[in-house]
Give the backbone structure.
Amino acid sequence: MKTELCGFSLRKIYPGHGTAFVAKDSKAYPFENRKSKFMFLRKRNPREIKWTILYRRLHKKKQTETKKTTKRIAIVKKQRAYVGASLEAIKQKRAQKPEAREAARLAALREVKRKKAEKKAKTKDTKKKVPAAGGPRQKVVSKTPKHSGR
């Protein structure tokens, strides 16, 4: 929504509100209400009229609608340890170079693969050592026919 500022009081004029005064030099002055227009035509100084925005700015009165200041809270970043890694370990990993980190990762992968292969070999050996109960299995053939010959 586009708003204009009053030519005298500097207050906001919303669409569909206020009037405009066009001077002889074809310059248009928008006004919020009749009071502002009357004061302008009587050549009053808005810096001396207490209810205008200019007066309030000059005399450092309460914050006005055109001037707004916001306080920003400074964001402080903190590092915290989490389960499985202490803060020192996290800082140490960050300080490492990418090449060193990659080498450590590959070494860990090789170790996991080696342990997996050992476990697989161990289970293979145990299967060979334990003899099957009753010797090798033989296929049992039944003498009854599967289909009756109808």
Remarks:
- Residues 56 and 79 are 47 Å apart (CA to CA).
- The helical segments are 34-41, 53-58, 87-95, 98-129.
- The beta strands are 4-5, 12-13, 19-22, 28-31.
